[in-house]
Fold:
Amino acid sequence: MEMAGVPDEVMSTLHSWHWNRGDFDAQWRFVRGQWDAGIGDMLSRTRFKEVRALAVPGGNGDIRVAFKVYREKRFWRYLFRPSLAAREARGFAAAAKLGIPLVEILACGERRRRLNLLEAYFVTAFAEGTRTLEYFHEHPEQRGTLLALLKENIVRLGQLHAAGYIHGGMHPRNVLWRESGDGGADSIWIDLATVRAISVRRPNWKYVLTDLTDLTEKFELTQPELDQLAAEYRKVCDFPVAYEVRTDNPWKFSRALRCR
Structure:
């Protein structure tokens, strides 16, 4: 089974493993050396994760990649469990099967010692010329573009839910967008390590509603805007949800709205 280009049998919880795209061999050795030397533009850094942008020589000039490393300091956390790199590869696979636009995976893997996970890494093509949806917090004048992007991504989220997955990290910072040539805007997803399977027949509503809330709650949408997004969601997913403008959770479960 292919996991967005990563063979499932490559990934292991028992030993170190590595995968890279077939034409990325030489570049992988170069980019790993750059990372180990501390080179690159810092994109984000937390206690357990660091992401840098690195330039890699290519046949048609330098290309840029996003190199993400998860470092695990808790000894038992991923003993006999998939690392976040493996989970992200599976998340990419689930989204790719639905036709959701994604950045391209170039390499991923992990290092273990006696089953203990030391490091997991995930390398993708850098999405040039993009911004996150957080851009619209400071640019309210582009409300039309924001609503179009929210509609696009609420539909994709509905498709993911209907296929039996939750996102788990559907924050505006994990959706990139750029203006398209026709005056519109296109978006792509990044950071899918939190995607996981759910029961479609008996889903955990807490996680479904959290996905919807994470994407929308910080944009101060009006009730008509929320109703429109809810209607778009229900076109692709018959989970019975409705929108209400509330301070605690704008998405409300309602059995009366079940589509079938």
